Amino acid sequence: RVSRPRHHRGMPQPTRAGRDPVGFALMGRSYDRRNLDAPAAAGDEVRAPLEGLAIEPEHALAAYRPVGSHRIHELADAIGRAIETCRSGGLMGLIVDLRGLEHLPATSSVDRFLMVEEWAAFAHGQVAIAFVVVQPIVSPPSFVRRAAVEFGLPAEMFAGEREARAWLAGFRRP
Predict the structure, then answer these.
(1) Which of 79, 105, 110, 168 has its CA 20 to 30 A from that of 71?
(2) Can you tell me the distance from the alpha carbon of 126 to that of 141, in angstroms, rounded to the nearest whole number?
């Protein structure tokens, strides 16, 4: 059993590159995130804009629409980058439209839990996520939903973007 440091209400805090607060090394993934609250250093890498991300400042949200085929860790990292963009830009909502994927990568309950944990750390309770998916889809296990709530990550699944937008319009930061 690997123990991880626990922080406020069990939510991991983003850290300097090289640390692994959410256990991705156990999944064969490296954790390469900067401390989101630290000022950018001269040597920090500059990332290219995230393909498929559209910012809608007039609605205080962004929409991320990945297309094609992606490995699960690439997709999870891209969603994390979209969340970072929303939070740092003061946007309260993110629509993640997964309908353009050739196939939704298979995930285990543990994978989903770890993704929720990571995304919550980047959202800092300030970004709600509305996933738009092709129906039918297996709903996340109840413990993953409970984890999202516990980590302070408002998230829900929808069959269409109209419903997702309506839900995000009703979201208010605590």
Answers:
(1) 168
(2) 24
> Measuring CA to CA, how many Å separate 105 from each of 62, 98, 102, 129, 133?
23, 11, 9, 19, 13
Judge whether 67 and 96 are in contact, CB under 8 Å. Answer: no
Tell me the Ramachandran region of residue 21: left when phi exceeds 0, alpha when psi lies from -120 to 50, beta otherwise.
alpha
- Whether 83 contacts 50, CB under 8 Å: no
Within a 10 A sphere around the Cβ of 16, how many other Cβ atoms?
10
The pLDDT tens digits of the residues spanning 132-149 come to: 988 755 566 677 778 888
Q: What is the pTM of this model?
A: 0.70
Tokens of 19: 């640390």
User: What is the rounded CA–CA span in Å between residue 47 and residue 167?
Assistant: 30
Residue 105 CB neighbour total at 10 angstroms:
16
**Separation between Cα atoms, residue 130 and residue 139, nearest integer Å:** 14
